[in-house]
Amino acid sequence: MTDAAETEQEAAAGKTAQRADAGVSKEEYDRLKAERDNLVERLARTQAEFENARKREARERNEFRDYAVAGAVEQILPVLDNFQLALKSTGSAEQLRTGVELIVKQMEEALRSLNVQPVETVGAVFDPRVHEALEMVERNDLPDHQVFDEVRRGYRIRERLLRPALVRVASNSQQKEA
């Protein structure tokens, strides 16, 4: 016999001895082995099902994102079309300004339809959660920490801030002393 065959026979004899030592009959051993094999097979199937579900969820998430982006782009494309027409126009500066104002209104309407709202600025009290202060200017005619100029408009979608508003804020030293 070869060394490998002898080692294999010794291992089999050892397993038989272990079964005998444990008091397990061959029928009981075969039943437990079959049950183990069944459980291992079920585990492998469950893992495969989980992996398939994970891949399906990722695919559906990507499809939903593409669908959502398509809805937003559909709202913005007419605005882009009008900007391109404005660039081709040969009218006066006043006519061009009027056309751009109409395009801005069209863009604001598209944003509104997507639930994007501008952040309240001029006249509001400075709120660091939605405003970004560009500078504080000493102004005795306005209350302390009141926004008096909007440099860049901020936006939120429902309650989530997309971009803070860039503002100038009044500083009233007379009001601070009172």
Give a written overview of the molecule.
The model has no long low-confidence stretch (mean pLDDT 88). The chain has helices spanning 3-22, 26-88, 93-113, 173-177; strands at 116-118, 131-138, 147-152, 155-157, 160-163, 165-171. A 3-stranded antiparallel sheet has the order 1-4-5. The chain folds into 2 domains: 1-114, Hemagglutinin Ectodomain, Chain B; 116-178, Nucleotide Exchange Factor Grpe, Chain A, domain 2 (Roll). The radius of gyration is 37 Å and the shape is elongated. It has 4 helices and 6 strands; from the N terminus they run H-H-H-E-E-E-E-E-E-H. With 178 residues, it is α+β, with helices and mostly antiparallel strands.
Gist of the model:
The chain is α+β, with helices and mostly antiparallel strands and 178 residues long. It has helices spanning 3-22, 26-88, 93-113, 173-177; strands at residues 116-118, 131-138, 147-152, 155-157, 160-163, 165-171.
